[in-house]
Amino acid sequence: MKKRPTVGEILQAKGVSRRGFLKYCATTASILALPPSMIPRIAEAIENTRRPSVIWLSFQECTGCTESLTRSASPTVEGLIFDAISLDYHHTLQAAAGDQAEAARHAAMEENEGGYLVLVDGSIPLGNPGFSTIAGMSNVEMLKETVAGAAAVVAIGSCAAFGGIPGADPNPTGAVSVMDLVTDKPVINVPGCPPIPMVMTAVLTHFLTFGTIPDLDKHGRPMTFFGTTIHDRCYRRPFYEQGKFAETFDDEGAKAGWCLYKLGCKGPTTYNACATTKWNSGTSFPIEAGHPCLGCSEPNFWDGGGFYEPLSTGRFDSGTKLAGAAAAGVALGVAAAAAGRSKQAKFTKEG
Amino acid sequence: MDLLAFAKGPALQVAAYIFVAGSIWRIVGIVLLKEKVDHSEPRKSGGLMAALKVIYTRSFTASPFKRATLYPKMLAYVQHLGLFAVIFLFVPHIMFFEGFLGFSWPGLPNNIIYLLGVAAVAASIALLVRRLTSPVLKLISNFDDYFSWFVTVLPLVTGLMIPVRMGFRYEDILAVHILSVVLLMLWFPFGKLGHAFLVFVTRGTTGMVFERRGAKT
Q1: Whole-number Å distance between alpha carbons of A6 and A86
Q2: Which of A102, B85, B153, B201 has its CA 20 to 30 A from that of A188?
């Protein structure tokens, strides 16, 4: 087997300066909330690591996650991530097609048995294998076959992490998430619709640096990025506390940048790094653009109520049942009063 | 279904049915009771104005008792006004009511609500301490008094925990808060908390009866 070059050798060959490389390491340490003392360790790990093989499987998805990754506005980071890993299989990005593509997947699995990473975007249909097949294989077969020799699995996007849109009610394809099927390997969920590019690359860098998976929350998401809510880090939070809310998308409150809670913002219940890492090279995030957070990195966010329904709205049935309860109350009251009157009459008689 | 979805959905729904049916049952059951026949000659008409007068005057202590009842009365006002503000003037709560009433009203800034909420909790604790230390109050208190206190204070405490979090996740503490409200709604019509509906009815009735008998109100 041909020996893979180290990342350091590749970067040298590509003419990446030492300064540029350390800048990347410092950025990554900052994103991962690591102390500056960790920068040399990251640099050492990346420089001396042989590029780990990565197999990217796309199932029931829209390619938005890949679009997000490839449209990363930090080209240096994007370039490094493609150089830092050996992306051996990816439907959208690979040049090979058909049998050649599948052969590349099998070769990567054999050559890197026990050490490769599997990245998955899209949910997996269990209803009928015909709903989504690749090279004649059902998604679930391909996932199980590929994951068998993997070191870890990263579920990219809300579909892979939680079922996403395909898994939304009534879930016609019987879509499930990666963690529903993979129970014997570490699974890192990087949800979002799509996930933030920097978060995807930083999770991979963490694995490259430490060889371990980062601390995860109860939904399998890295705590570094999913440890606080959008609401907690939102620059509009002071308006929430002051009771200043936009009532519509074009009123004075909206123009003044007031809190979007009344317009259905799911920031208080959504854990993600949008408010700090932001999008498009730190330009902005949805709330900054004037739209409430949809809560796209939370499980079952499609079935979590209306996007424009405020969080504090209760979920009641139609008023008919409530009217029925009121009618039952009247009936009970009349019955109780009748019983009371009967007792009153009895006492009056006795008195 | 996660805890928050359960709290906001089925739990709140069932609680609403029981709250509505139970409250109407109590009010209708009392209103439809046979009025006691008064054979005496009425001194005055004993109409609506008499009822309204007593509803107002009984909000304040009569002069001879002012000094003795100042402390508990003050605490009760802080507790009740605090509860009113927290329930009806906190913007997310107003939006909850708007969800099924179809209209809203202006709220207060959150920080003021937090302050009033803390004051209401402090007053509630002071009232409980008084109940537990006063021999007379202790003697006439039963399970209903203590449980009603508990289900009233619990939503206040869990609600105040939401902004400070105290190590809990937002959605978890919000779910616990909603479930504490569910508990309050389930108990409300059946215990002494029912006074919220009946206090003005009983005061008004007293006013009408007293006026009819010529008593000073």
Answers
A1: 11
A2: A102
Q: What is the pLDDT of residue B163?
A: 87
Q: Which two tokens stand for residue B47?
A: 């109409």
User: Does B124 contact A at CB distance below 8 Å?
Assistant: no
The residues in A 207-226 lying below 8 A from B, measured between CB atoms, are none
Q: Is B108 on the interface with A (CB under 8 A)?
A: yes
Domain map (residue ranges) of chain A: 52-226, 230-303
DSSP letter string, A108-145: HHHHTTTTEEEEEESBEE-S-GGGSEETTEEHHHHHHH
Burial A50-77, CB ≥16 within 10 A → b, else e: ebbbbbbbbbbbbebbbebbeebebeeb
Which segment of A106-120, A250-264, A267-281, A314-328 scores lowest on mean pLDDT?
A314-328
Query: At CA B11, angle to CA B5 and CA B16, rounded to 5?
Result: 125
Q: Which residue of B has its CA nearest to A217?
A: B169
Grouping H, G, I as helix, E, B as strand and the rest as coil, residue A216 is strand
What's the CA gap between A299 and A162, in Å, rounded? 5
Choose from A207-211, A254-258, B99-103 the range with maximum mean pLDDT. A254-258
Residues A274, A231 contacting (CB under 8 angstroms) = no
Show the tokens assigned to B40.
Answer: 């005496």
Whether residue A317 lies within 8 A of chain B, CB to CB, comes out as yes
Higher pLDDT, A73 or B89: B89
Asked if CATH classification 3.40.50.700 holds for the domain at A52-226, the reply, yes or no, is: yes
Comparing A66-75, A221-230, B169-178, which segment has the lowest mean pLDDT? A66-75
Kindly list the structural domains of chain B, giving each domain's residue range(s) and its CATH number in brackets, ordered by start: 3-21+71-213 (1.20.950.20)
Nearest to B40 by CA among B215, B213, B216: B213
- Check pLDDT > 60 for residue A81: no
Q: What is the sign of the dihedral through the CA atoms of B92, B96, B102 and B107?
A: negative
Distances (CA, A) of A328 to A1, B18, B20, B138: 79, 10, 9, 37
Of B13, B21, B29, the CB nearest to A328: B21
Q: What is the arithmetic mean of pLDDT over B184-208?
A: 92
Per DSSP, helices labelled H in chain B are 3-6, 12-31, 48-57, 66-89, 91-101, 110-133, 135-140, 143-164, 170-187, 195-213
Instruction: Tell me the CATH number for domain A230-303.
Output: 4.10.480.10
CB contact under 8 A, A341 and B107: no
Phi, psi torsion values for A29, nearest 5 degrees: -60, -40
